[in-house]
Each structure stands twice: as C-alpha cells, then as structure tokens.
Design goal:
- This protein is an alpha+beta fold and 329 residues long.
- The chain has 2 domains: 2-127, no CATH class; 194-327, Heat Shock Protein 90, CATH 3.30.565.
- The chain contains 9 helices and 7 strands; from the N terminus they run H-H-H-H-H-H-E-H-E-E-H-E-E-H-E-E.
- It has helices at 2-6, 9-14, 19-44, 54-86, 97-159, 163-188, 198-211, 232-253, 294-306; strands at 195-197, 219-225, 229-231, 260-269, 272-279, 309-315, 321-327.
- The protein has a 5-stranded mixed β-sheet, with helices on one face.
- It starts with a helix and ends with a strand.
Length: 329
C-alpha cells in the first residue's frame, strides 16, 4: 500500500479533470470493484462479512481520488451493504441494540479510515514537494559548479602562451560542457524519480547540441527515438556518450563549411536498447587518428560500461560512419 501512495497516483488522476469529476469516477470504479467482490463472497458464503470488504475499498478510493472519493464510496457502499446484505434486502430497519451498534461502528470506523488515508496522502504530497525542491536546489548548484569550472579553464586557456595547452584546455571545456548539457537535460526529461524517459532526454540533448556553439548551421541532427526508460545513473552515461559521438562527428566527419547530417536512433527490443549515431561524412578512414582513439574513445568505452553496454564503430554502407551502443536490459 505504501508503494501505491508513493507513485503519486492522486496527482496524476487530478490532472485529468476537475477534482469532483475524478472523485466521482474513482468512487464509481471502486464501487464496481466492491460489487464484484461481494458477488464472489456470496457465491461461497452468502451474507458473510457484510461490511468488512468496504474498508479496503474506501481506503483504495481515498488513496486514488482523495477524501471525496472515499466518502462517496463509504456512503454508497455502506448503504447498499446495510440494505442488501446486513438486512437481506428488507430495508434499513434495526431491531436490536447489537444491530444498531454494528452499523454505527461501521460508519464511524470507515470514516476514520478515510480521514487517516487522506492525511497520509497529504503528508506524502508534502514529502514529494520537499524532495522536488531539494533536487531542484542540487541541480542549480551543480549547474553553477559546471559553469565555474568551464570559466576557470577558459581563463587559463587564454593566459597560456602554448598553443598545445590552449587546445587541450579547449577540449576539456568542450567535454565538461557536454557533461553539463547531459546533466541539464537529464532533469528536464522527467520527474524526480529514479527512471528517465530516454526519448525525451536524448531528444532535448540533440536539440541543444544543434543550437550550441560550433555547429554553425551546417550540420543537422535527425532523431528517431522510441519510448524507453533507464535508471538515472545509466541515463546520464548514455547522454555523455551521445554528446561525445555527435561532437566527434561534427569535428572529424565534415570538412570546414561542408553541410552534413547526423542521424540518431534509439530502438527498444526484448534484448535491450540500441542507440545508433550515423553521419554522412568522410567515414572512419578519412578521419584523423584522434577521432577513433585516445581520450575520447576511452571516455566513450568507460561510459558505455557504466550504461551496461558496448560501443562499436564502423563505416556506413552508404558512406560516413556509424557508432552503435548496444545496452542490455
């Protein structure tokens, strides 16, 4: 039951329409479920457990639709159980003290269940809001830290008289910028949970790369991303790999000023996920050696292991290069 509360179903249902409509719909569904359970019980032991099954139904209605749904379910299900089960279809008359006490205690305890369940969800909502605020603050501080590191490296690059040092600094700035983009899009792609919508995440990352400095409008990125999700630690590794592959394609696949196309595809299968980055550039044989070896390839392989996959590079059949990341489930 705790898992039912923590997935925050009530907030998602309330996004469908007005709260009273959601409450009525949830109550109707729970009443139907209660009726089915009652029929099954009567097949085995007619009239047994007259009010007992209403407690979990009221609890479920409250968790899904709030106190209004719980109260509607309580009143309707309680009256039906009173009339058809407790009194066997002979009205609402109560002929002795024991019967009156049973009915009064039922409605009182059921109302208490509805109240306590609603309070539990309110506390859960407050906890979710606090968690979201904390994650937002951490996210903001992390972005600031990335920017500070980038600024320091850029400052050092401008002050260095050695061209090789400046180029190394620029490469470091580009890679840290890629990490910053991956982090930024990671939290824009989903909620504060542990799972990340990879189609949204990678789509936003590709859009930011196209709009970023250095592409100059010559290189386009096309995406075909199937809906899929990954844990957050694996997702960020995939984001870094994608950033590195696209950046490498731009730097090494297309001579200066030549227009080009990079296709990014994410395919989901029973065996796992496959991310493909293909370009229509000069191919692996026409690239500099640094494109396929050294620190860049080492980073790609390291993050591929973190993502639970393996990266392969090959020339495309129609030209250009194709990088494929195959990840296990």
């Amino acid at each position: 039951m705790r898992r039912l509360v923590t997935v925050d179903l009530r907030r998602r249902l309330n996004a469908i329409g007005p709260s009273w409509v959601v409450a009525a719909g949830v109550a109707l569904g729970c009443l139907a479920l209660s009726g089915v359970v009652r029929i099954l019980i009567d097949l085995v032991a007619p009239g047994a457990f007259a009010f007992g099954m209403i407690y979990p139904i009221c609890l479920l209605a409250t968790l899904l639709g709030g106190w209004r749904a719980g109260l509607i379910t309580l009143v309707v299900a309680g009256l039906l159980a009173w009339y058809f089960v407790f009194n066997s279809g002979h009205g609402f008359a109560l002929h002795d003290l024991k019967s009156r006490a049973n009915v009064v205690l039922f409605f009182f305890t059921s109302a208490l269940v509805v109240f306590l369940a609603d309070q539990a969800v309110i506390e859960q909502d407050k906890g979710l809001a606090d968690r979201d605020l904390l994650i937002e603050e951490i996210n903001h501080r992390t972005k600031n830290n990335f920017q500070i590191v980038i600024s320091l490296l850029e400052l050092q690059a401008r002050r260095s008289p050695e061209p090789a040092v400046r180029e190394a600094m620029k490469a470091a700035v580009a890679r840290i910028g890629g990490l910053a983009r991956s982090h930024r899009n990671l939290y824009a792609a989903g909620d504060a949970g542990q799972s990340v919508a990879m189609d949204l995440y990678l789509g936003e990352l590709c859009a930011n790369l196209t709009d970023g400095p250095g592409f100059g409008g010559f290189v386009r990125i096309e995406t075909a991303l199937e809906p899929a999700s990954l844990p957050r630690d694996r997702a960020v590794a995939v984001g870094v790999i994608l950033n590195e592959l696209i950046t490498n394609a731009f730097k090494h696949a297309f001579p200066p000023g030549r227009p080009g196309l990079v296709r990014v595809a994410l395919v989901r299968a029973d065996t796992g996920l496959t991310l493909t980055v293909a370009d229509d550039g000069v191919g692996l044989t026409g690239r500099a050696a640094a494109a396929d070896s050294g620190l860049g390839r080492g980073l790609i392989d390291a993050f591929a292991r973190q993502a639970g996959g393996v990266v392969t590079l090959a020339n495309g059949e129609a030209g250009g290069a194709v990088a494929t990341l195959v990840m296990k489930p």
